[in-house]
Amino acid sequence: MIVPAVKLVAVTALLVGCAQGASALQQSDAPNGGGPDSKVYLDGSIEGQHDAHVYNDAHVYNDAHVYMDAHVYMDACTPIQTQLLLNPVFDLAPVGTDWTSIPYDPTYPLITADDGIAEQSAPYKAWMGGLAGTDYGVSTTTDQLYQAVTVPTGTTALVLTGYYEVRTGETGATVYDTGSVAITQTNGTLIENALAVNNVGPTTSWTAFNHTFASNVSGQTVWLRFATSNDITNATSFYFDTLALTATHCP
């Protein structure tokens, strides 16, 4: 485009220097010189406009970085579910594997096939309570069973499921003997109860329970703890079996 621009300047100088016959020169040059020169000018205009349009388009493209930011969406995980308990149905050998038992009377293991009630999933279950204080000269007997679990970071739901049974020698509507299932801190401090049972609500068969924890324990190590307490007379037995503690989280 530079050469045609120089030619346009030369024609203008010639017109200024030669007044005589200027009209004829303009008429003869206009089709041959003026036309191409005009085309040069138009080309320049079109080129400029085209470039500006490209620049504007580039601006739109730059704005498209918002779309590029969408990689955050692409990075979002597909949640998975993980069962956190080891030996959740109490059936691994040796008996009691992966669980910590604190029975009031060590001669009666908490995870057992004893006592005559059929397990929800054979061969073992957790049998807690069943001891009256009068048998030991005390007012209260207690049992504890727990397992430490690490809840995955990013857990959005934590659900406990399982089965329980309650058999009692108590009568009436007064609560004397109690059982509970909860998550606690590793020093035993309560975080949230999942199930509370007592002698007033005996069962005749295995009963399913399901609890979604409201407490956020994502990334923490906690205990899943079972605890029972019997008073001085008329013992109540609390049974648990076939558990699952399921975390929904990003892998």
Briefly note the structural class of the backbone. Answer: alpha+beta
The biggest beta sheet is recorded as: 6 strands, antiparallel
Strand content: 25-35%
Q: Please compute the radius of gyration using only Cα atoms.
A: 43 Å
Mean pLDDT: 80
User: Which regions contain 5 or more consecutive residues with pLDDT less than 50?
Assistant: 1-73
CATH class designation of the largest domain: Mainly Beta
Count helical runs: 4
| CATH architecture name of the largest domain | Sandwich
H and E order: HHHHEEEEEEEEEEE
What is the H level of CATH, i.e. the homologous superfamily of the largest domain? Answer: Galactose-binding domain-like
Overall outline:
globular
Helix content: 25-40%
As for the number of domains, it is: 2
Task: Give the CATH topology of the largest domain.
Answer: Jelly Rolls
* Count of strand segments: 11
Distance between the termini: 62 Å
Your description of this structure?
This protein is α+β, with helices and mostly antiparallel strands and 251 residues long. The protein folds into 2 domains: 67 residues; 170 residues, Sandwich (Jelly Rolls). The protein contains 4 helices and 11 strands. Strands 1, 3, 4, 6, 9 and 11 form a 6-stranded antiparallel beta sheet that branches. A 5-stranded antiparallel beta sheet has the order 2-5-10-7-8, with no helix packed on it. A hairpin with a 5-residue loop joins strand 7 and strand 8. It is globular, with a radius of gyration of 43 Å.
